[in-house]
Amino acid sequence: MMSLVKPRVLVVDDEPGVRKALQRGLRAEGMDVVTAADGPTGLQLAGTGSFDVVLLDIMLPGLSGYRVLERLRKDGVTTPVLLVSAKDGEIDQADGLDLGADGYLVKPFSFVVLVAQVRAVLRRAGPEAGRGTLRLGALAVDRGLRQVHWHDEEVALSPREFALLEVLVGRAGTVVTKDELLRAVWGEEQAVTRNLVEVYVGYVRRKLDAVGAGALLRTVRGHGYLASDAQLDEVITP
C-alpha cells in the first residue's frame, strides 16, 4: 500500500458493539476501516488482498477465524492477520500462529495495546506488504510484476495507469477522492491538477472496457472514484 494512503484495516467480528468501537477508534488513529460480521464475508473481503492488516475474531458464524485464516494462506494471501479471541490458552494461541497469524489478542484487550500491535505489524510488513496480488472479481493486479490480468487476458497499462489502478483496487469498495489519487500517484509533482486524474481514469477505464472489465471502475459524482463489483457491493460495510 502506498505511504500516502491511509493504512487499511479489516475488522471481522460478530459483535456489533466491538465492530463499531474498533471502527471509530481506528479511524481516529488515521486508518481506513472496513468491517464484516461473519466468516464468509470476512474471507471474501480479505481475499481481495486490499487490506494492510486484518483483525480476525476466532468465534465467527459461518466460518471460524481459524478456517478463514487457513483459506487465506492457502490462497496465497499474505496480508498480516491479528487473531482476536476470548480464549487465552497456549494451545489456542499456538494453533493460530501455526496457521499463519501474525499476532494474538485476548479479549478484553486494551485499545492502546491493540493499536500498538497493529502499528507494529504494519512496520514489520514494510515495503514488501505492497507487493502481493490484488483481486477484484476476475481482475488481478500483480504489484510485484506490475501486471494486470482480466481472467487470462493481460491488460497493458503504462506505469502511471498501473499506479492509479493499484490505488483504486487497493481500496476496493471505498471511494477514493481525486486529491488522494493525486497524492498517491503523482506525489509532489508540480503543475499536476485534478483534471489530469480524470484524464488518466479515462485511459484506464477504456483499457478495462476493451477486455470487458469496465464496470469495475465507477465515478461517484462529487466524491471521486470507486473500484468494486456486485459481490463486493453486497458485503462491504464502510
Describe it.
- It comes from Amycolatopsis plumensis.
- Residues 131-229 bind DNA.
- Pfam families: Response_reg, Trans_reg_C.
- By secondary structure, this protein is α/β, with parallel strands linked by helices.
- Helices cover 42% and strands 19% of the residues.
- A five-stranded parallel β-sheet has the order 2-1-3-4-5, with helices on both faces. The chain has a four-stranded antiparallel β-sheet with strand order 6-7-8-9, covered by helices on one side. It has a two-stranded antiparallel ribbon with strand order 10-11.
- Helix 2 runs parallel beside helix 3 and helix 6 packs across helix 8.
- The longest helix is centred in the C-terminal third of the chain and has 18 residues, at 194-211.
- The mean pLDDT is 89.
- Helical content band: 40-55%
- How widely separated are the two ends? 18 Å
| pLDDT averaged residue by residue | 89
- What would you call the shape? globular
What Rg do the Cα atoms give? 18 Å
SSE string, helices as H and strands as E: EHEHEHEHEHEEEEHHHEEH
Please state roughly what percent of the residues sit in beta strands, choosing from under 5%, 5-15%, 15-25%, 25-35%, 35-45% or over 45%.
15-25%
Strand order of the largest sheet: 2-1-3-4-5
Largest sheet geometry: 5 strands, parallel
Number of helices: 9
Number of strands: 11
Pfam families: Response_reg, Trans_reg_C
Keywords: DNA-binding, Phosphoprotein
DNA-binding region: 131-229
Domain OmpR/PhoB-type: 131-229
Short description:
With 238 residues, the chain is α/β, with parallel strands linked by helices.
